[in-house]
Amino acid sequence: MNKITLKLGLWFFFVMMMIEVCLFFVLHTGLVESRVEEELSALLARGNSHREVLEDLYNTETLHHIALMELKADTEVIITDGKQNIIISSSKVDNGEKKIVSKKLENVPRDGKILERRWKNEKYISTVSPYSVNGHQNGYVYMFKSTDQVQRLISKLNQHFLLAAAVTIILLIVTILFLSRALTTPLIQMKRATEKLSKGNFSVQLPDRGEDELGELSRSITILAQDLKHLKEQRNDFLSSISHELRTPLTYIKGYADVARRRNIADKDRERYLDIIYEESEKLSNMMKDLFDLAKMDQNTFVIHQEKVQICFYLRGICEKMMPAFKEKDINLEINCNENMYVLIDPMRFEQVFLNLFDNAIKYSDPHTKTSVLVKREKENVLIEVKDEGRGIPGEDIPFIFERLYRVDKSRSRDFGGTGLGLSIAKELVEAHQGRIEVKSGLGKGSTFLILIEEMTE
């Protein structure tokens, strides 16, 4: 048996046993007291019945008849006069009965009263009923019942209780075993699942256990395993991509450096090779900067300093800064923003978002095309659309376009080779401003990036 099953079982058993003992004690005490009261009530009623007979017809024959009746019963009777002198009894009077008869009686009600009820310590329980005949003859009818009979009755009751207790305990043990296993089995499965997770085995699939807390915990562990598996795969892909991305420029740098070091090479060729080395060094430097920014975002050490910015004026400034790059490739850059709208952003960080989007538009658009920026209100938000007429993104690549080091161009050619981190950084930055970025695209149809950010009221 597992430790948790044993602990839960013992705990349930202890609690239920305490409850059962208390209930049995209260029930047993109540039943015993009730049964004794019934015996005393019956004894008093019998005495009152004899009194009625005596008052109707008081004579020696009646007295003997009453005594004879009790002789054959499991009770005894003693009839006395008004001074408590015994007139007749159904059996030989012993000391216990004498002791009770000798008790001084005062103001005994007509319906009689109980003289002795201590069935545990005394030999008899007893009642007394007064009688009066024509105002001349007064006396008392004493009724007795041996406590041995009461004790035998209580003993039988105790046997029934013990049997009921034994059956209850057996059923309790069976129920506790079933319930503890029903509770602990899923917990043990979850424990084993978490042990697998801690050892790096993420192939964990727990069964659905309904809508209760155990079911929610089971689903949470399954989701955690899937997320960890996805993260592991992403990490492996990330490390593989990083090693490739770093190896490519380093290979160019090393290769062209070796060639440039040759003495018999023309100065023109050496200069061209040095330009390539410089270009690849710049790419390597940019990649390291991007990776450093992403690492700071992951560690929540990436600080943004937000301020109120007039978005149209702000975007026109960025477009003017990027205009020479667009003109160099003969791409027309337009901005359509005429409304007075304000947003709360970090100007320097948010500029990086648009520089990345414009850089992609330049790389993947042909000459004589157009890239447009449209800004408009959408409910309580500002919607910024950056649309190009470039090559577009295949549908199967769109869900992964914001993942780190993911590139649509799998060839990683030098003509279109970026770090593969620009869109990831853009997404992180937009979300750091409590915004949202999406993309709509199709192969050969260009791409439209949508940025939604909350508008500030003046």
From TrEMBL:
* Protein topology in the membrane: Multi-pass membrane protein
Alphabetical list of SUPFAM superfamilies matching this protein: ATPase domain of HSP90 chaperone/DNA topoisomerase II/histidine kinase, HAMP domain-like, Homodimeric domain of signal transducing histidine kinase
Q: Which Gene3D superfamilies match?
A: 1.10.287.130, 6.10.340.10, Histidine kinase-like ATPase, C-terminal domain
Entry EC number(s): 2.7.13.3
Any one GO MF term held by the record is:
phosphorelay sensor kinase activity
Which residue numbers delimit the Histidine kinase domain? 241-457
The reactions it catalyses are: ATP + protein L-histidine = ADP + protein N-phospho-L-histidine
Coiled-coil ranges per UniProt: none
The alphabetized UniProt keywords are: ATP-binding, Cell membrane, Kinase, Membrane, Nucleotide-binding, Phosphoprotein, Transferase, Transmembrane, Transmembrane helix, Two-component regulatory system
Q: Where is the HAMP domain?
A: 181-233
Quote the SMART domains the UniProt record gives: HAMP (SM00304), HATPase_c (SM00387), HisKA (SM00388)
Cross-referenced PROSITE patterns: HAMP, HIS_KIN
Which is one Pfam family of this protein? Answer: HATPase_c
**Which GO cellular component term is one of those annotated?**
plasma membrane
Q: Which ranges does the record mark as transmembrane? A: 6-27, 161-183
Q: Where in the cell is it found?
A: Cell membrane
What protein name does the entry list?
histidine kinase
The organism named in the record is Bacillus aerolatus
